[in-house]
Specification:
The chain contains eleven helices and ten strands. The protein is an alpha/beta fold and about 300 residues long. Strands 3-4-5-6-7 form a five-stranded parallel β-sheet. The longest helix has 15 residues. The radius of gyration is 19 Å and the shape is globular. The relative contact order is 0.11.
């Protein structure tokens, strides 16, 4: 049985009618399509769902609709984040009442809290709910970065079970994986870095692309799992050119993996991904590209 909050979770968009109201029927259709495509969990009312534009009543309604459509087939990780700790704690309670089975909580934005401030903030949110909480680190949007030491400390808070890591920094992600307990989930918050993160211990993706291509994202992630990329000794392939690939190879080698980087054609600049990443499979050196990597190459270009 799959562990909750692993694999592919779709950060659902929020459909609206032409007059700006939440489109209840479209919310249901979207959730149903994701489930039928094999997505492992649903994430309504994240920032992809334009949560800052929704009223409290609309947020709760969206989650209720998704929970009803899921009907226990997949878990529902509802967004509950912001920079007002009391408001976030209240939102956590509301999402729990709406039937969510977990919470995704972004770091406070704009006011740039200290590591101690982050610990106190998320401690208060955790005290307000019985639901498991997945933290969300996206410094490019919030102006606040949770480093590995801070995430490791936050992992000691009861029912803080994971982090959606969207820093874009593969070195930091590797440090997080190394710093947290083995049962603490590290999820990619960036579709393009899903396979590299899983190669060093990540457990899946909270995906935006899966709104459009859910089955393909599921295929990619499950291929990564089947390929044994979570086990030392497995071959790791990085499907994007530049520093990310080099960083992954170095980290992987240090952890005892056999690492290889897929190179673009010789004339392509290393810091510029080729136009069609799917073609990378034709330019691999001394290895056979794995299915997960081939899929990543196709998806990143979409």
């Amino acid at each position: 049985m799959r562990q909750a909050w692993t694999g592919v979770g779709t950060a659902l968009i929020t459909p609206f009618t032409r007059d700006g109201a939440v489109d209840d029927a479209a919310v249901r259709r979207l959730a149903r399509r994701q489930i039928e495509a094999g997505v492992h969990f649903l994430v309504p009312c994240g920032t992809t769902g334009e949560t800052p534009t929704l009223s409290d009543a609309e947020k709760r309604r969206v989650v209720e609709l998704v929970v009803e459509e899921a009907a226990g087939r997949v878990p529902v990780l509802a967004g509950a984040g912001g920079y007002d700790t009391r408001e976030v704690a209240h939102a956590a309670k509301e999402m729990e009442k709406a039937g969510a089975t977990g919470l995704l909580s972004v770091t406070p934005y704009y006011n740039k809290p200290t590591p101690e401030g982050l610990f106190q903030h998320f401690s208060a949110v955790a005290d307000a709910t019985r639901l498991p909480i997945v933290l969300y680190n996206v410094p490019g949007r919030t102006g606040c970065n949770m480093d590995a030491a801070t995430i490791a400390r936050l992992a000691t808070i009861p029912h803080v079970v994971g982090v959606k890591e969207a820093s874009g920094n593969i070195q930091q992600m590797a440090e997080v994986v190394r710093a947290v307990p083995p049962d603490f989930l590290v999820l990619s918050g960036d579709d393009a870095i899903t396979v590299p993160l899983m190669a060093i211990g990540g457990r899946g993706i909270v995906s935006v692309a899966s709104n459009e291509i859910p089955a393909e994202m599921v295929e990619m992630v499950e291929a990564a799992e089947r390929d044994g990329q979570l086990e030392p000794g497995g071959t790791i392939i990085e499907a994007t050119a530049g520093n990310t690939g080099l960083g992954l190879a170095l980290v992987a080698a240090a952890k005892g993996y056999r690492a290889a980087i897929v190179q673009p054609p010789e004339r392509a600049r290393v810091d510029q991904p080729p136009r069609r990443l799917a073609l990378l499979a034709k330019h691999c050196h001394h290895l056979n590209a794995k299915p997960a990597t081939q899929l990543l190459g196709r998806l990143v270009h979409l």
